[in-house]
Every structure is written in C-alpha cells, then in structure tokens.
Amino acid sequence: MIVKFRPTRRAALMGLSALALPGGIANAAPRRGGTLNFMQNNEPQTLVALTTVATPALTVSAKVTEGLLAYDYDIKPRPQLATEWSISPDGKTYTFKLRPNVKWHDGKDFTSADVAYSIELLKTIHPRGRNTFANVTGVKTPDPLTAVLELSKPAPYLIKALAAAESPMMPRHVYEGSDPLANQNGNAPIGTGPYKFKEWVRGSHILYERNPDYWAKPLPNLDRIVFKFLPDPGARSIAFENGTADIGYRTPVALSDLDRLKKIPTLVFETDGTSYSYNVANLQFNLDSPIFKNEKVRQAIAHAIDRAAIVKTVLFGYGVVSASPIAPGLKEFHDPAPSPYSLDLKKAEQLLDEAGYPRGANKMRFKVPLDYNPIGDENRRLAEFMRAALARIGITIEIRAADASAFVKRIYTDRDFEITLNGHSNLFDPTVGVQRLYWSKNFKKGVPFSNASHYDNPKVDALLEGAAVEIDPVKRVAMFKEFQEIVGRELPDINLYSPLYLTIKNKRVHDDSMTADGVESNMAECYVDG
Questions:
Q1: What is the largest CA-CA distance in the chain?
Q2: Is residue 203 part of a domain?
Q3: Is there a single domain that holds both residue 481 and residue 521?
Q4: Is 250 left (phi over 0), alpha (psi -120 to 50) or beta?
Q5: Phi and psi dihedrals of 322, rounded to 5?
Q6: With contact defined as beta carbons under 8 Å apart, do 298 and 339 qualify?
Q7: Strands, E, within 373-411: which ranges?
Q8: Residue of 432, 407, 420 whose CA lies nearest to 496
Q9: Is a pLDDT exceeding 90 seen at residue 27?
Q10: What is the DSSP secondary structure assignment for residue 411, as one 8-state letter?
Q11: CA proximity to 117, closest of 101, 138, 135
Q12: What are the backbone dihedrals phi and psi of residue 279, each rounded to the nearest 5 degrees, phi first?
C-alpha cells in the first residue's frame, strides 16, 4: 500500500498550531507585534544548519530557512514547504507536492529544483546528511511543484528527517557555482521562513525581522527576534531574573541556579518540544592514539567511572544514566542494560598494569590532555569530575579548554587529541543520530560530530547498514540491540548519561514550542504579551 498524506485545509495553511496543542485546540487571538529576546549560551559559527549540527546554529537557522516537513510531539509528519507526500510500497520512492506561491526572501520562486539541489548538498556536506540521504540516488523534478526522491534501498527513517533545522531547503540560485562551505549565505541567509535576516553583530546579537510576504499569512506574530549571546551562565541567570531574557533552551542557566530560579513567579520551566532530539554525553577515545588503542586501558577507565555520581553531582539530578549510545528517550531502540564494566577501582588498576602502564615513582601511570566540548556549561564540570576520577587509578588529566571553533578543528580536522568529552543528538532515529559516530565510512576529517574515535568494526558496519534499510521493525530493533552490545563491550567511547533539558521562558511568551523540535523550529506561531 502506498503511504500518503493529504492535509486538511487548516493544517495546510497553518502547519501545526492546532494539531500540536493539547486537545487539538489552538490558543485564541494571539497578540501580534513585539520582540522576543532569545538567550543563546554561545554564538553560532553560521546561521544556516547546512554544514553543522552545533546547537547554537540550530536555534537560529529554521527561523529563516525552512524544511519540507514539520513534526508533532509524536514525530508524525505535518506540512511545511511540502503539502502532500507519498511513499511507494517498496520504500524506494518518496514523492512530495510542494507548496505553491512560496518565495525566497529575495523574491525568487521556491521550486522543486531547490529541493533537488538541497538534498544533494545535505548528502555531501551535512554531518548527518551523509547517513540520512545515503540511499538517495537522485531527485527528479517533473514540474516546479513536484520533487521525487529515488532510493537504491529503503530508508525507514527518512520521512522523519525533513525538519527545518535538520534538513534545511537551500536557495539553489544563491549556492550554485560556489563553494557551499564558504558561501556568504551562512552569514546573511536568504530563506523562505517567517523571519528575514537583518543583522549579525559579532559578539553581541543576531536580529531577525518579520517576513511580510510569508506564505502562511498572517504569521508570524512577532515583529522581530533578537538572539543574544551570553557565554557566562551566571549572567544568563540574571537576565532571566531581570526580564532581559524572554526564552532560552537546553537549560540555558547553571544547573545550580535552577532551584532558586524556579521560585520566581514570572518564569516557566518546561520540556515540550524536546522529543525530536535526545542527547547522550560520552567520553570519546582517539583510537589512533598509542595509549587508547589498547582495549585494556579503555576498560580500566570504564571501571573508574561512576555514572550515578556524575548525574548527581555534575547534573544536579537533571539527567538519566545511560551506558548506551542510544538515548533512553528512544525507548523502542534503547538497551537499558548496564555497562559490563561496573565501578571497580581494583580491576581498573589491574588492567592498567596488564596494559604496560604501572604506577611510577610519583604514583602516576601517564598524563594525557582532555578536551571538552564548550557547548553546554556542564562539560567543564564533567571534565573536572573525570580528572578526579582518573587520578584515583593513576592517570593524570590535563584539561584543555577551547572555544567551539577551535574544539571542532582540534577533534575533527587536526585530530590532535587523546580523549574528549562530547555530546551528540540522537534525534528521532539511531540511523540518523547514532550511526554517524560508529560507522567506519563516516570517518571523514573536517566533518564535525562524525566518527571522532576512528572506530572501525566490520560487524558493526554491517549491523548499522542493515538497520538503515530494514523495513521490518522487529528485525531492525534486534540489529540495534546487537550493535549496542558490541560497542558497549569494545568501548570506542564510554557513554555516560542522557541530559534532561529544560526550556526556560518568561510567562509573557506563548506558543514557542509547538512541534517536536521546539524552539529549533520556525516559531512562526510564537507571540508575546504586551
């Protein structure tokens, strides 16, 4: 049977606003006008989520650059730039009917040619697109409002992968003939979204203004969105206290401040809009390192780590212990089995002795640098926890701090690291969010948040590649369970926990997280009280 979707008239015109709310009833008469002050932990490196999956870029991208589909909280697709779609019985043909009369911000028509060009870009240079669109052999454009994706093999996850921040549709006429990695559209984007780029003052803010020609008129409700950068978590807490920050996501304040901030009556704390992207934090090994290519060293470190203590002391309880690379939020796929390497310091000491790293005269075995991803305030505290934990078994850790750009370059381009603390979005399916980290074919220098460990296991490759095309859900789950068992035993990395993220907002903000991707969506329905 061909899978099809044809929206109601309201869904086609207004997207998800009525569908995503409890009971399917939209709020009445939202206020038009006003400014939303969006607090960012870090400044993005680009304003388009084409070449990166770093969270600072995800929040700003979709307001300007949209996707083919949006998703309700249960990850069921709804219209955005596509109004209808169908999937052939063999899962190898996806046909999309595009929304008519959509204009790019420079006045050009949005057409199927843009879709075809965007899919090829995503397949080539997007960190996750290499996995997501691996089976797409081409995109046919029989007319300006029809795009047909042809696949060599089924891709059961693909229909969930077309959100704006994950698979943005790009203007072909802006990118064609240029190096997409260097194209200035990343600094001053042209899109189809409800907001238009106005200015980017480096180190200060990004300003977006209402698109008066948006296809879903009378949306958007806001006049403008200002993204402000405050790297200091204490300063962000003050901004929410004094009202200069209206909204922030992924728990934008120090976790130690949450109990105090929750007593402020003007603030709201919620988890709506987080089901599209679950995260897992891990300690990654450089398997090209003479030290960490030794499996016994990796096992010893695993035996020295207390995950429950991390969640309690580093996360103040805002997280869930997980030894699996597949987050607990992905209940269908997640294996809740504990690590085979339980907390056991004596065993850790024994393994390090056997690996050829006895304690020296100073009682230490060796010294290595530890790099941590600066996106997220908890990673610095986690690095300090790791330094203390590994010192107990004779490993000296030198914590190295860097900004986001320097971190990405060191880990993924220069590969100048030994171990690193990182975090990765699982998203809505392991093929999209997890495979990239363990698939040997996704070891690609310069591509951020890919296979940093340089893990290469033919059995794991076969399982991941098989699950990516398996349309039988039972067989697919079994493949992912076996994959989790292997990587949990071989330890190309050590998975630690899945964080619980909160969106914090002022009570004057409404309808901000109407879809599964929350504030990473276009936020067209969002409004603020006067």
A1: 76
A2: no
A3: no
A4: left
A5: -150, 125
A6: no
A7: 395-400
A8: 420
A9: no
A10: I
A11: 138
A12: -115, 155
Distance CA 337, CA 152 (A): 35
Averaged pLDDT for residues 386-391:
98
Long-range Cβ contacts of 450-454 (<8 Å, 24+ apart)? 450/127, 450/130, 450/412, 452/284, 452/286, 452/411, 452/412, 452/420, 452/422, 453/284, 453/285, 453/286, 453/287, 453/492, 453/493, 454/286, 454/287, 454/288, 454/415
The secondary structure of 258-273 as a DSSP string is HHHHTT-TTEEEE-TT
Which segments within 119-166 are labelled E, that is strand? 136-143, 146-151
DSSP code of 409?
Answer: I
Residue with tokens 């907390």: 343
b/e per residue 324-346 (b: at least 16 CB within 10 A): bbbbbbbeebbbeeebebebeee
User: What letter represents residue 109's amino acid?
Assistant: D
Give this prediction's pTM: 0.82
In a shared domain, residues 514 and 409: no
pLDDT recorded at residue 129: 87
Residue 74, domain extent: 3-189+503-528
- Are 427 and 518 part of one and the same domain? no
| Domain CATH for 406 | 3.10.105.10
Taking the C-alpha atoms of residue 322 and residue 345, their distance in angstroms, rounded to an integer, is: 20
385 in the same domain as 287: yes
Are 440 and 508 contained in the same domain? no
Amino acid of residue 373:
N
The domain total for the chain is 2
Could you give the CA distance from residue 48 to residue 59 in angstroms, rounded to a whole number? 10
pLDDT the model gives residue 462: 98
- Look at residue 158 and tell me whether its pLDDT is greater than 90: yes
366 and 466 share a domain? yes
3-state SS record for 40-104: ECCCCCCCCCCCCCCHHHHHHHCCCCCCCEEECCCCCEEECCEEEEEECCCCCEEEEEECCCCEC
Same domain for 495 and 383, yes or no, is yes
- Same-domain pairing of 9 and 155: yes
Beta bridge mates, 109: 103
* 267, part of any domain: no
